[in-house]
Amino acid sequence: MTQTSTRPRRLSPAEVHALLGEPEAMIKAKIQDRIDEYFRLFIAHSPFLSMATADAEGRADCSPRGDYPGFVKVLDEHTLAIPDRPGNKIADSFRNLAENDGIGLLFLIPGLRETLRVNGRAYPTDDPDVLARMQTEAKDPVLAIVVEVAEAYFHCGRALVRSRLWDPASQALAEEIPPVGEIAASQFGMDIDPMALTRSLEESYRKLY
């Protein structure tokens, strides 16, 4: 007997709105169109963000970005710059921005439950003055992403509280995952010692700076 797969029921925007209700006035009022002094302070202390983009067809991608705290620079109250550090060179974000310049950022600070969300438009640049501001230990990025801010606001910490993300006990979850070298060797059919591959990857992480 052949089983027919079924997808969960799709809700309309009206149905979703009926289930969630209206946001409180204070929630709506917190959304700003610029980077104020508190957002600037948060960005200056954030070593990590998630960056969401999508192509012309709406196919979405979300990538992690991280560096020293304050690696994202506030150029002015309406503009941010994100350095493009060496990575996998797939360049999904750059391809997406060439087709659709919308962008969403989520900044985190270790130990802090609240996050900062920034939405807007973005494009790549090789402007020397911008890249010079992102120098770390005599290394300049080759490219940066300039973000023109349309919305910025703090997001409450419920998700991080529920996830226990900053609870040291949660780090034990990492022990349940096989080493990255073992995963790569299995997924890609690589004829290599998984532990040797893991050690090689760990060594590459140590050479980032």
From TrEMBL:
Question: The Pyridoxamine 5'-phosphate oxidase N-terminal domain covers which part of the protein?
Answer: 36-156
One Pfam family it belongs to: PNPOx_N
Q: Can you name this protein?
A: Flavin-nucleotide-binding protein
Organism the protein comes from: Streptomyces antioxidans
> What high-level taxonomic lineage is stated for the organism?
Bacteria, Bacillati, Actinomycetota, Actinomycetes, Kitasatosporales
